[in-house]
Structure formats: C-alpha cells, structure tokens
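User: Could you check the structure of this?
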Amino acid sequence: LTNWQKELAKRALTKYVERHNAVRLAREKYPDDKELYKALFGKKPNGDIDVILGPMTICFYIKNIEDFTCVHDNIFLEKKRHITRQAIEECLSVSGFFRYDVLIPELYGTAIFINCYKNRFSAESQKQTVEHEERHALDSLLEDVLFFDEEGDEKEGVLFKEIKDAFLHKKEKDIEAALQRFFIEVRKEFENSARVEIIAYFTEGYLLEKIISKLTEDESYDYYAMQKKLIKESKYSLEFDILKFDIKFFIESLGVKFAPMIKKIAKQVFVEDYKKLLEESVDAMFDLQIEGYSNEKIVALLSIEPLRKWRKVVDRLIAAENMKKINI
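Assistant: Sure, the predicted structure tokens are below.
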C-alpha cells in the first residue's frame, strides 16, 4: 500500500467506528422507532415504520408514502413546504435511497430508507436495495475521509494531504498523481448532475447523439466553466467546497513552477476525460436498449449507479444475458 492508501485506511476505520458507535448510541437513546425517526427528521411519521440497524447505518422501512416522500424530497428541512401529488407519484417508483444529512450531525451518512408502501417491492427487491444503499453509505464515509480531516477541516482530507506531502518531497510524478486523484474525486459533483440530465433526456425520448451533444456542447451543462466563472466573479473569500475547483488556489499553494502541470491535469480531468465519460455512459445506456431492455428498466437500473460505473454495470449485465443464451 502507498502512504496515502494507508492513511485512507486508517482514517476510514476511525470514521467507521465513529458512525458505528453513533448509531448504537442513537438507538439506545431512542428505542421507539417513531421517536428515532422524529429525532432525525423533526416530526413523527404518519404511518408505521420499522427500524433495523446495520453496522453503521439506520435503515427505515417506511409504510406510508407521504413519510417516504417527506424525507426523499427534503420536505422535512423546509417547514413551509408541503408534499405535492407529483412528488408522491414520483416516489412510488423509488424502491429506496440513502441520504447523508439528518438533524443529528453525528448521524450524517447513516440513514437508509426503504419503500414498503403497499408492498410495491418484493422482499428480495428490498434486500437488494438495502445492500445497494449500504454501499452508498460506505462511499459517503470514504468521501468524508478523502476531503475532511478529523477536525472537519475540508482542506486536510487524505487527498489534499497527499498533494501537500508529495510537494514537500519535491516528487513531480507523485504530485501529478495526487492532483489527478484529487480532481477525479472532485469531478463527482459534475458527474452526479450530468447523470440526472442524461436520464431526463433519455426519458423524454432524445436519441444518443442528441444527448451527447447537449451535455458536451451546451454551455449550460459545462459545470467546470460555471465553477470557474463563479470563482472569478466572487467578491468574498471562498469556502473550500468552491475553492477546490480554483486552479489559482492550487498554483498559489504549490508554487508557480507547477502551474503548467496543474493546468494540464485540470484540463485532462475536467474537460477531456469528462467528455469521454459522458460519451461512454450515454453509449452504455443505449446498449441496454439495443439488448431489449425497456426504457423504464434502464432508468431503474442506472439511476441508482454513479455515472462512472455505468459502462461496467452495463457490460456485466450484457455478459450475464449472453451467458444465459449460451446455456439454453
């Protein structure tokens, strides 16, 4: 293991134990399922719920669709906002989800919700959803470790620390590798936004080439350019959530000598590689269509997967289908 991987493993284990303990303490404090729900979301559920603890998660099995929608659509965070019929209709097709933010900071990244309304989803389907959402919880933990230190300072996460350590040792290849890893993780924000847009256009019946051109040529989807503009126009000190996209910040941190390298890696990760990812992801989506999957099934399968995993997920599904045909 490299030094940064060892540091990641150490901090991840510490964070895992913290969340494990926080989940157990919360359950001890709120043994009643509805009281625990209220503690995390500000109000008791209207319907029945069941709560099952995972190693570092709290899984809510929700039987009332309004309770499910309230959490899914962040309505519990906005007291004046009401649940709409449209929101409920959309949630009817959602088998479950993971959410990071709750009203108890110690329990950030632990909440999973399963839709049990009128048994719309089978027990096997619910089990698969729980397993999938638990992976999201683990991804969330790793992301916290990558970008935050033990004191919550976002600049001192494992990835940023790796950049600083490489710089101190004056190893250009290590600095380049560390920057690339950091930018790829940061780019997840763009990928999540793009995933939503791709699914929306696909649902509306747009063809492959049109979706790709929209996402790669329309300025309103150039998230990196939008972030740079936001940084340039800001008159105030920036939070690291925005600052991590600022190339000038990295040049000032590492030195003018590294400016060409930083600019080159940023362009590669945020522009060139990102465009390739968009193209291969949209292509993967339409490969499922060619294989005979319905549009509804495609959306259901890919909407719960990170964009960067679409190609692998699709290839695995197609390979499994081909094996079935061989065995018939």
